[in-house]
Amino acid sequence: MEKMNNMNWFLSLDKPFNYNRVGYMVFLCFICYLISSPAPLFSLEWFIYFVLFLAMGIVADAVVQYAILIYSKKRCRRQIEDAHLLQNELQHFTPNADFEKDYTLTPQNYDETSILRQYMTPEDHLAVMSVDSGKFASQFKDDTEAMFVVEPYTDTQRVQSQFEDDSSVKVTTLTPTGKMPFKDEKIDIIMCQECNYDKNEIQRVLKKGGYFIVNQHGTENLKEFVRLYMPFQMKGKWDAESCAQTLESIGMRVVDKFEDYGTIRFHSIQSLYQYFTKVSPDFANVNRYQVFYLQALKEMKDHSYFEMTTHQFLVVAQKTF
Fold first, then answer.
1. 12, HSE (Cβ side, Cα atoms, 13 Å)
2. What are the strands, taking DSSP E only, across 106-252?
């Protein structure tokens, strides 16, 4: 069933026949002949008959593989033609920066901005960890006595320019050893907005009674893409419960947690490309991830949209000692 929905498989059927199972057949024939041969092991007679056995095995397998290819080409002629049309359309795709948003998200059942404000006071020292060049943190200017924006991958000077009118905001990054750039028990609230964190560092820099709020994507997020290209990275589960358990393991008290499963529907390749450009630029590569984009384009043609799963969660934990 997976092959019948895989555009790349249909495209492969139209390539010239290329037999590449020699190594597999050598191994298989050797094992079979080793078990069943009546000739003395590794004698001249044994080697002669093994070469003949191997040659017949490879020829027979090549004939079968060729026959399967010919049958598949005839059986899937329409799908092969459709795959070529989709591939041709995808190859002529040109990104358009002015294209209006053409996707719909199911409403999220929690608002991380409102939740963070519930725990903030004007006297707090707030640290916001993010990878969005300070966009999320900009909502909280002038709300606390001091705010530190921790951006591990972005030019901090460029992000700092967004807050030049607010002297209480300092943009910083992790230390060369990957540590938080704060002294022990310096911060009242740490907000981790869709980025990774070191739980031991959170415990170190957070004041007693301080809050750690983590808002992250779970393992089910965009699973249609992830499972296609990274199947071996999907073992285990990362959700609100798993995150809460890791924080409880270092002695923190989980105050609240939220979980949101939803969907996002795309109505054009342009909208899918723009969405990935925004949330994960590495995935916005049509040539590198052609199999995925071909499948998405096919579903858009068949159903007028392509749907993906979204999974996000938020956990609020308090340092108790």
1. 10
2. 125-130, 146-150, 169-172, 187-193, 206-217
pLDDT band at 154 (very low <50, low <70, confident <90, very high): confident
- For 206, phi then psi, to 5°, come to -80, 135
Fold of the domain spanning 109-258+312-318:
Rossmann fold (3.40.50)
- Which of 156, 151, 280 lies closest to 221 in space, CA to CA? 280
Q: What is the pLDDT of residue 319?
A: 95
Largest CA distance in the chain: 91
pLDDT level of residue 277 (50, 70, 90 thresholds): confident
Contacts of 95 (CB under 8 A, 6+ apart): 270, 273, 274, 277
- 290-303 and 269-279 helices cross at what angle (nearest 10)? 130
Distance set, CA 18 to CA 66, 68, 133, 189 (Å): 9, 13, 49, 61
Give the DSSP letter of residue 104.
E
| 234 three-state secondary structure | coil
pLDDT tens string 21-80: 999 999 999 999 989 888 888 899 999 999 999 999 999 999 999 999 999 989 888 888
Torsion over CA: 14, 18, 23, 27 (sign) = positive
Q: CB under 8 Å to 154, separation ≥6 — which residues? A: 131, 133, 134
Reference 53, options 23, 30, 27, 35; nearest CA is: 30
Residues 6+ apart with CB under 8 A from 60: none
How far apart are the C-alpha atoms of 72 and 183, rounded to whole Å? 66
Residues 126-165 as b or e (16 or more Cβ within 10 Å = b): bbbbbebbbebbbebeeebebbbbbbeebebeebbebbee
Domain ranges of the chain: 3-91, 109-258+312-318
pLDDT score of 97: 66
What is the residue-averaged pLDDT of the chain? 89
